Write a sequence for this structure.
């Protein structure tokens, strides 16, 4: 066997192994219909994020026996229907949309109101926008959910709403060829400059101030609303949790008083100091994605045409200011942390 043949066979084996671990859940942008049945009222009343309860999840005509627990921090306090974690068994998902899945984070609509049903779809859009800008990002899948409380504790024992599943950290690490970093803090010089600049401007684009490269008080590792991944010698910050962004503008969203802004729809640059040349490169790349970014919002379900126009206008505000690249980069450089 020639050296070229050996290399070819090795490449084929690697591709087959990668495909065997691939998840069909995040390979499709269509909305997945899901029914979640179980003691939902008991689970929500307990408000205990360590307690798992048995549920049945149905999708594509297949029933999955899973364990469900509530999760989240601030949303666990303010939401009637907090985010959930779905724990699939180690086998039985082969050949289904949940193949190769174990534990999945599910973002739910916070309250049984039309406004909350819109908010969760808008937060899904923020994840999709960042995935246009970087492959070091969490993939998401939009779900159309029907909930059934088999204990009949809730006022509405059956109700519907959209939600979305988030790619597990282990799957992201495998996809990008890295590993999640377990760090108490981050040295700015170790961050990949292109990713960092992209994150800083993206957060400004969507109006997000609820993030930091510093470990939050209630956390054990860095960072606030973001994870760190190591690829070789470089460290990548991957943001998540966008319900407090100006683009979503959830009813419960309030900016930190120390920022001296009255609404989350007021943009405030929270990026750290970085080479302005990297910021400009990232800004040019983001501007080039404007049509796709706006299309993400325009294609969302649930939102009325009025809602869509409002969100497009919010994003257009960024692109209008970004027409003068040097002026915007200078303002970022003046305000960096």
């Amino acid at each position: 066997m020639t050296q070229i043949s050996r290399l070819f066979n090795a490449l084929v084996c690697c591709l087959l192994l990668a495909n065997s671990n691939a998840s069909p859940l995040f390979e499709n942008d269509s909305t997945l219909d899901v029914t979640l049945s179980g003691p939902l009222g008991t689970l929500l009343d307990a408000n205990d994020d360590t307690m798992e309860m048995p549920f049945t999840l149905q999708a594509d005509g297949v029933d999955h026996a899973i364990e469900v627990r509530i999760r989240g921090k601030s949303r666990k306090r303010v939401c009637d229907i907090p985010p959930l974690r779905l724990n699939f068994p180690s086998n039985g998902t082969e050949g289904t949309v949940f193949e190769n899945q174990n534990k999945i984070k599910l973002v739910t609509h916070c309250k049984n109101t039309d406004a909350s049903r819109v908010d969760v779809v808008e937060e899904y859009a923020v994840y999709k926008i960042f995935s246009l800008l970087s492959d070091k990002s969490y993939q998401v899948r939009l779900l159309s959910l029907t909930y059934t409380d088999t204990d009949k504790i809730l006022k509405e024992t059956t109700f519907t709403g959209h939600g979305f599943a988030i790619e597990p950290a282990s799957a992201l690490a495998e996809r990008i060829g890295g590993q999640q970093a377990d760090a108490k803090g981050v040295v700015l010089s170790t961050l990949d400059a292109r990713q960092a600049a992209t994150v800083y401007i993206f957060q400004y684009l969507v109006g997000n101030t609820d993030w930091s490269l510093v470990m939050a008080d209630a956390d054990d590792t860095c960072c606030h609303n973001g994870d760190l991944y190591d690829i070789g010698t470089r460290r990548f910050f991957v943001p998540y949790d966008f319900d407090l962004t100006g683009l979503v503008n959830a009813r419960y969203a309030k900016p930190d008083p120390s920022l001296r802004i009255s609404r989350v729809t007021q943009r405030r640059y929270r990026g750290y100091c970085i080479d302005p040349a990297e910021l400009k490169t990232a800004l040019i790349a983001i501007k080039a994605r404007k049509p796709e970014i706006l299309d993400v919002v325009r294609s969302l379900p649930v939102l009325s045409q009025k809602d869509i126009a409002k969100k497009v206008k919010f994003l257009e505000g960024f692109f209008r200011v970004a027409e003068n690249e040097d002026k915007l980069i200078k303002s970022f450089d003046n305000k960096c942390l």
Q: What stands out?
A: The chain has two domains: 25-170, 173-335.
